[in-house]
Design brief:
The structure holds two protein chains of two kinds. By secondary structure, chain A is an all-alpha fold. Chain A is built from 17 helices and two strands. A two-stranded antiparallel ribbon of chain A has the order 1-2. The longest helix of chain A has 27 residues. Chain A starts with a helix and ends in an 18-residue tail after the last helix. By secondary structure, chain B is mainly alpha-helical. In chain B, about 70% of the residues lie in helices and about 0% in strands. Chain B has a two-stranded antiparallel sheet with strand order 1-2. In chain B, helix 8 packs across helix 9. Chain B starts with a helix and ends with a helix. The chains are: A mainly alpha, B mainly alpha. The interface between A and B is large, with 60 and 64 residues.
Chain lengths: ~375, ~425
Amino acid sequence: MADLARVLGTGRRRVATIGTLAVLALGTLYGLVRPESTPGILLETLFTTNTLASTLRLSVPIALAALGGIFSEKSGVINIGLEGLLIISAFSAIVAAQSTGSLWLGFAGGVLASVMLAGLFGVVCIEFRADQIIAGLAVWLIALGLAPFAATVLYGQPNVSLTAAETPPTLTEVVAPIPGLSGLVESLSEITFVGALFDAGVTVYMMFLLVGVSWYLLNRTTFGRWVRASGENPKALDTAGVSVSRVRYAAVLLSGVFSGLGGAALSLDLATFGGNGQTMVNGKGFIAIVAYLFGNYNPIGAFLSTILFAGLDALQNGLQIADIAVPSQLIRAIPFVMVIVVLALFGRTRLPSAAGEHYESGEE
Amino acid sequence: MSLRDRVRAVLGRLVAASPTERVLISLASLVMAILVGTVIILVAGRATTCGAESASYYFGVGFCYDPIVVYDRLFLGALGDPLSAGWDPFNRQLAITLRETTVLLFTGLSVAIAFRAGIFNIGTQGQMVVGALATAVAVLWASPLVSGAVGTVLLIPFGILVGSLFGGLYGAIPGALKAYADANEVITTIMLNFVATSIVLYLVSGVFKDPESFANQTESLPEFALFPSLLYDSAYGFSILALLFGLVAIGVLYYVLEQTTFGYNVRTSGLQPRAAEYGGVDAKRIVVATMSLSGALGGIAGAVYVMMVLGKFQTGVPAYGFDGITVAILGGSNPIGVGLAAFLFGVLKSGTTVVQFATDVPRQLIGVLRGLIILFVAMPEFFRLLGRRTMGPSRPKNEGGATATDGGESETEVSTDG
């Protein structure tokens, strides 16, 4: 393994990627030759339009939370409370949509709640210098308690279904009034597998857009430079006359905005909030953290690793229906195991050097 | 610096605070959480609907939920109303409180021991679930071989041993991943919780399922394989012996941490990882050993849950592991502090059912309080500031940039306090 790495002149990230691709290629070949074998069924399930469609749908909350996490952590505040932000926004979005009857006010409600909780987290970490990990856990546990509590107060039970508003429209529905375009999109969406790209909900396109916007914001703007400096070398940023805590507040609030959109998309797409047990968010916030670590803090990398995790999740859903020897309860564990494997292989991601540390301006 | 070093440094600062300060911070956090909880109860009481006659009035405004009643039921109700006449110390509600305390003691100790080595074990829940199923299966397997009082004497230690073994092995996984692959244990332990739930669901809905039952559960353990209920009625699912076992565990852990070389290595790894390594401590082995011990304690919590509370294994184990995080943080990761915090949380959990019986307040309130307590414990600086603002007469009140200006000085205050 190490020799191979030296030959390639790269780290083990590259080696592992090549190894994974090789295994995948061999599996694909075997599956193509013998379609009735387990790899064959796997392949068949993988390349259905349904699998891609649910991969994209499942990606939305994870990818958006990951984008938020990147900004926060790049600025020096490790936000382990993404899960809590997703929970609170998923719930608030349903409440707002149900009480106003407007889908878009639902999104606004979700984002508002998430930003408020992120703001609280920011004040606690930046103003009161709390331990970021413990404060993040607190954000998660508060949301985990508060959302089902409020749901029970308002609706008499922890699960809430949305009946007063529509779910987010799909692209086909959006372009339906436009004569020329609707026919084109219609025919594109009927292509096997890739057709799913043209018939997804608007939240999926929002995710595509925000991945690009985040990349641009982080790498090509002054604000992005400040965020990176705030995490890598806050002293230099301070010397340059930019307030480190303001940049960090902005980044933490931005993580609230992104996670809020993600949580709202999660619940509004399904027109329901599930508040039992770990709630409907069920670890997506934590998977988001691994996704951006795996993507090395690059929004596009984080998006691609999200697709990997969400794809596994979609695949296991498909496999539960397909006739395969492995029991469904065990298949359900695959994405979580994969997260651990990825983390073990790529756990040494370099953190922004001032992440997790409180910064105290010397002058002011 | 790697994330591990940072987390350790932060934990080090947390543990380094003087014991008095930590007790004060824990108490203040509790009070603050209750105050914020009061506001939440009042707001929730406005949001819900009820008849005008059942509302309580404060400042001329009607609220459906009365926080005073809620807290009265929560705290006094959990003890079986000790202030009223004819209080029976062996009442049902107190038994439930002590039952919850017993399980929380072990999950709290599990999280606390990892904390002391600078490790966040969020996976106590999963380790408990794995230990609980292992105990149930092993004791069911062994129970036909023995019977009667001899059976009790043999099976209970056997069950605890199996639970701790499987919990320990499940805890060793994230330990090894952290030590040898540098995988962040916060994420791996959370993921392993999900994995444990899936695997256990698979096993209990298949191989180990009670064929007579519709629920995903094992067969019931024979009566003699359960913790004997002395003093308290057997229907309460509480055994004073298990509680005593928990108190012994506190003592043992305290001794191990404070008096043994292993404990010294664990503590220094948590406080000064670099210094510990210079001192010849094998940091990787300490991580794996601590996580195994932590997992074993989680597994024992599972064993106690099966052999005392439930009498079998069933899916949907309550969130004792997550409450263990709060118990450990509130108890300052000190075994004795954990004991006190476990009792407090036992009161909260048991009191919740009393509150639910007496009022319409949803039981999820305890979850909110749990999060709030952690939030406040996480920010000792908030209380220092609060203390200085309200009690420090020498300091002029300045708005806006007050905290930023105070910052540099309070750093030194922290160290002189500690």
